[in-house]
């Protein structure tokens, strides 16, 4: 048995001061969004409490599916590195980048490179290679007992007002062969992605541009579970594949207080077992309860094979 926690969209606050030399049209849109809307939603106290709540549950692993920061300032990446170190070791936490982590082009060593230890694989992935935004090999695969955690990156700089993501042909091709290989080796395959992975799950200006291609790969190769963030809402979808049902599950923003019609923070814990040659997976959701200033149990369900 293994227990794996999932959070997303931490959107660490408060936003550090922005130097004039760092401001551009894309960051200006994000800065205004933070000042006029997001800073009233993303509460650092909730971010601290969700880490405390997860650590108290002592899961075997924690998945963080992107949008750790907001407008990709150098200072935000430093803060993100501190946050990750406080949350847990790189062996215990797996991270994949979101659109806000690749908001504008940033030198690798000043940006995502500071979090690189949380995005390394321990199984060989033929065809994995760096992307334009990420100078390390994606997809990556980490083996935890008989679970394969597969990380892909969808974070790419986009023009102001857009929050799309893209996997790209190279990453898609490597993912397809990796899913096939891991299936044949009997792993429970758990895919971590920031953007919702199927067509129609996000508005066009926020969507994964190659969701149709990814859905085709998931249908052909199967995948036991896909976890994502980005929409800042709890989501549950299923996709029929040639190798069983693909469960697709998203979580709200880890720091959300629920203001302005947003969903309050929540995290999922997956308990995965192999029983009589079959995978069994149950999901427990804990949600932020403002009145108690604590996370409380919300739902519990099993994923059908
Ligand atoms: Fe987000
Ligand atoms: Fe996002």
Number of helices: 5
Reading off the top of the CATH hierarchy, the class is best stated as Alpha Beta
Mean pLDDT: 97
The N- and C-terminal alpha carbons lie at a distance of 17 Å
Look at the helices and sheets and give the structural class.
alpha/beta
Provide structural commentary.
It contains 5 helices and 12 strands. The chain has 305 residues and is an alpha/beta fold. The protein has a single domain (8-13, 25-263), classed as Purple Acid Phosphatase, chain A, domain 2 (4-Layer Sandwich), CATH 3.60.21. It has a 6-stranded mixed sheet with strand order 3-2-1-10-11-12. A 6-stranded mixed sheet has the order 4-5-6-7-9-8, covered by helices on one side. Helix 4 packs parallel to helix 5 (211-221). The protein starts with a strand and ends with a strand. The mean pLDDT is 97. The chain binds fe (ii) ion (FE2) (2 copies). The site of one fe (ii) ion (FE2) has 7 residues, from loops.
Label this structure with key terms.
305 residues, six-stranded mixed sheet, binds fe (ii) ion, 22% helix, 26% strand
